[in-house]
């Protein structure tokens, strides 16, 4: 079987039991895909070690069966009907009330089964992302965005149907599934694949309609986007980094650009600046949570005035 950063593992850990048998072969993942970051001047003074061969990130063809199985299920189940229902459920429920830091601690028991590149816990991944930005002197709002960007994975504990509607890359539903999405053939099992409208190039959308009017597959990005939009003072760039960070077919693959408006182009630049910190910090040293906590608690207070968040 193909190698995997996280194999074998206990995935369904909703009760917070100990996760067992995490393999520690993440050393082999110190790799950057130079073509993905070329042109991003925000990376000129990057914290990522240029000597490391980064081409091994996001190697889905070589990924283990866990990752492949995850995406098959996700691609078969993310339909328009499911997405409408998920948004409706979200709107009419408050799942929990807790601070950002408490959310980070709660999320710590989740191991992301879509991710071929890390076996670390989520709190460590969040701190790695934020710390890489801090080292590079990125603005405080961006450091905070790095710290919280995956907190939407909390959905897993609040009524998700599995991990397929929480983690993984995102794409559009309501129009044809783009070939630039990883494992594009797995969409053949999606009931919308041959739909008379959803199966067409533009589907229910029209060119130039703006990304705020398209439906991204439901998961941690969309969920946290709505929460931060309503309950933080973070700027539009931060909200875009949160909403689109898993939208690889768009920010890296170049798909769906026909739906963008002018504002979206500015947001795309912000997401591209964010993305390398999310991805390539996965090979950085494991952060010491307690040591970093005071700095980040202060940063959280700057942008979340109510402190206790409705999740
Ligand atoms: O496996 C990962 C993980 O779920 C990330 O949180 C998400 O943002 C990425 O797009 C995905 O590839
Ligand atoms: Fe994510
Ligand atoms: Fe992430």
TrEMBL record:
<dbReference type="GO" id="GO:0019310">
    <property type="term" value="P:inositol catabolic process"/>
</dbReference>
<comment type="similarity">
    <text>Belongs to the myo-inositol oxygenase family.</text>
</comment>
<dbReference type="GO" id="GO:0005506">
    <property type="term" value="F:iron ion binding"/>
</dbReference>
<dbReference type="Pfam" id="PF05153">
    <property type="entry name" value="MIOX"/>
</dbReference>
<feature type="binding site">
    <location>
        <begin position="112"/>
        <end position="114"/>
    </location>
    <ligand>
        <name>substrate</name>
    </ligand>
</feature>
<feature type="binding site">
    <location>
        <begin position="245"/>
        <end position="246"/>
    </location>
    <ligand>
        <name>substrate</name>
    </ligand>
</feature>
<feature type="binding site">
    <location>
        <position position="149"/>
    </location>
    <ligand>
        <name>Fe cation 1</name>
    </ligand>
</feature>
<feature type="binding site">
    <location>
        <position position="125"/>
    </location>
    <ligand>
        <name>Fe cation 1</name>
    </ligand>
</feature>
<feature type="binding site">
    <location>
        <position position="278"/>
    </location>
    <ligand>
        <name>Fe cation 1</name>
    </ligand>
</feature>
<feature type="binding site">
    <location>
        <begin position="168"/>
        <end position="169"/>
    </location>
    <ligand>
        <name>substrate</name>
    </ligand>
</feature>
<keyword id="KW-0963">Cytoplasm</keyword>
<dbReference type="GO" id="GO:0005737">
    <property type="term" value="C:cytoplasm"/>
</dbReference>
<dbReference type="GO" id="GO:0050113">
    <property type="term" value="F:inositol oxygenase activity"/>
</dbReference>
<keyword id="KW-0560">Oxidoreductase</keyword>
<feature type="binding site">
    <location>
        <position position="220"/>
    </location>
    <ligand>
        <name>Fe cation 2</name>
    </ligand>
</feature>
<keyword id="KW-0479">Metal-binding</keyword>
<feature type="binding site">
    <location>
        <position position="245"/>
    </location>
    <ligand>
        <name>Fe cation 1</name>
    </ligand>
</feature>
<keyword id="KW-0408">Iron</keyword>
<dbReference type="InterPro" id="IPR007828">
    <property type="entry name" value="Inositol_oxygenase"/>
</dbReference>
<protein>
    <recommendedName>
        <fullName>Inositol oxygenase</fullName>
        <ecNumber>1.13.99.1</ecNumber>
    </recommendedName>
</protein>
<feature type="binding site">
    <location>
        <position position="150"/>
    </location>
    <ligand>
        <name>Fe cation 1</name>
    </ligand>
</feature>
<comment type="pathway">
    <text>Polyol metabolism; myo-inositol degradation into D-glucuronate; D-glucuronate from myo-inositol: step 1/1.</text>
</comment>
<feature type="binding site">
    <location>
        <position position="153"/>
    </location>
    <ligand>
        <name>substrate</name>
    </ligand>
</feature>
<feature type="binding site">
    <location>
        <position position="58"/>
    </location>
    <ligand>
        <name>substrate</name>
    </ligand>
</feature>
């Amino acid at each position: 079987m193909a190698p995997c950063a996280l194999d074998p593992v206990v995935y369904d850990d909703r009760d917070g039991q100990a996760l067992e048998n995490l393999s520690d072969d993440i050393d082999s993942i110190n790799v950057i895909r130079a073509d993905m970051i070329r042109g991003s001047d925000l990376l000129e003074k990057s914290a990522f070690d240029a000597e490391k061969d980064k081409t091994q990130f996001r190697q889905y063809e070589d990924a283990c069966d866990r990752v492949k199985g995850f995406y098959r299920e996700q691609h078969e189940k993310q339909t328009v009907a499911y997405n409408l229902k998920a948004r409706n459920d979200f709107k009419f429920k408050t799942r929990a009330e807790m601070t950002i830091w408490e959310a980070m601690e709660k999320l710590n028991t989740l191991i992301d089964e879509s991710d071929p590149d890390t076996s670390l816990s989520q709190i460590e991944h969040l701190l790695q992302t934020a710390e890489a930005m801090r080292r590079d002197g990125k603005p405080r709002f961006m450091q905070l965005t790095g710290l919280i960007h995956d907190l939407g994975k909390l959905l897993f504990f609040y009524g998700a149907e599995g991990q397929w509607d929480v983690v993984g890359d995102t794409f559009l539903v309501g129009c044809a599934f783009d070939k630039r999405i990883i494992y594009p053939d797995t969409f053949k099992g999606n009931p919308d694949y041959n739909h008379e409208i959803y199966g067409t190039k533009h589907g229910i959308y029209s060119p130039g309609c703006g990304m705020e009017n398209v439906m991204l597959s439901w998961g941690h990005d969309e969920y946290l986007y709505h929460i931060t939009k309503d309950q933080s003072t973070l700027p539009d760039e931060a909200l875009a980094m949160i909403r689109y960070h898993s939208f690889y077919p768009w920010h890296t693959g170049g798909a769906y650009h026909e739906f963008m408006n002018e504002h979206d182009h500015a947001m795309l630049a912000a997401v591209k600046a964010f993305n390398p910190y999310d991805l390539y910090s996965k090979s950085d040293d494991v952060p010491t949570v307690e040591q970093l906590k005071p700095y980040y608690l202060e940063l959280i207070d700057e942008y979340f005035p109510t402190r206790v968040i409705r999740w």
